[in-house]
Specification:
The structure is a single chain. The chain has 217 residues and is an all-alpha fold. It has one domain. α2 packs across α4 and α2 runs parallel beside α9. The protein contains nine helices and no strands. Helix content is 78%, strand content 0%.
Length: 217
């Protein structure tokens, strides 16, 4: 997952990459729910089609379309992240499990580094950027998220996740000098709006079912 993510961002802008990654994660998890027998109502179906249409629209050929190779890698990373999230449900201590997964990834990273040793170019800034991204942003980020998650309602947690591509796009503008295209804006509105419709509608359905169950003698 991190491998595909890293190589994808060598060619993708921050905003497009985050949108593809987030869309793939949510699509994987929603798709798993459908595969497991979950039924979607009409608003959720509309949201799912809207989100899928947004991702397809972003990838259609054109001057502002993101690179295909990087897009495929990012979508693959998103699917892997979605599967990882689904498999991680119900673990005893998410922080310890995540730390163990990071440690198990070390041999893979070493093996890949050895295979690419002839093309490796390490500089001072790049080294610390890598450490900050992996150990600090990812490691501490996971720890903080899993710590506060129990205190958040499911709807609030889902809403917080919707902000990720927006934050990434703004960071790309401020720190990387990237430009926001009309295609990205429209794709973001369609994808994030569609996913929000699926998630929020599901929460409303669950809440209604709980009320009905509570009223039964």
């Amino acid at each position: 997952m991190r491998l595909a993510f890293s190589f994808a961002y060598m060619s993708l802008p921050a905003g497009s990459g985050a949108l593809l990654l987030f869309g793939a994660v949510q699509a994987t998890m929603i798709g798993h729910g459908i595969w497991s027998g979950e039924r979607l109502n009409k608003p959720q179906l509309v949201g799912l089609m809207l989100a899928f249409g947004g991702l397809v629209g972003l990838l259609l050929p054109g001057l502002s379309a993101p690179p295909l190779y990087g897009s495929i890698l990012m979508l693959g990373a998103g699917v892997a992240w979605g599967v990882y999230s689904l498999r991680g449900k119900g673990v005893g201590d998410p922080i310890k499990v995540t730390a163990g997964n990071f440690l198990r990834a070390v041999p893979i990273a070493i093996a890949l580094s050895l295979l690419m040793v002839n093309s490796i170019s390490v500089d001072y800034a790049g080294f610390w950027y890598a450490v900050s991204s992996g150990a600090l942003a990812s490691g501490i980020g996971y720890a903080i998220w899993y710590t506060v998650l129990p205190a958040l309602k499911a709807t609030n947690a889902a809403t917080v996740q919707l902000s990720v591509p927006v934050i990434a796009a703004l960071g790309g503008i401020v720190f990387l000098g990237e430009h926001i295209t009309l295609r990205l804006v429209l794709a973001s509105v369609a994808t994030l709006g569609g996913i929000a419709l699926v998630i929020l509608e599901k929460q409303q359905v669950n809440a209604a079912q709980q009320i009905v169950s509570a009223d039964r003698p």
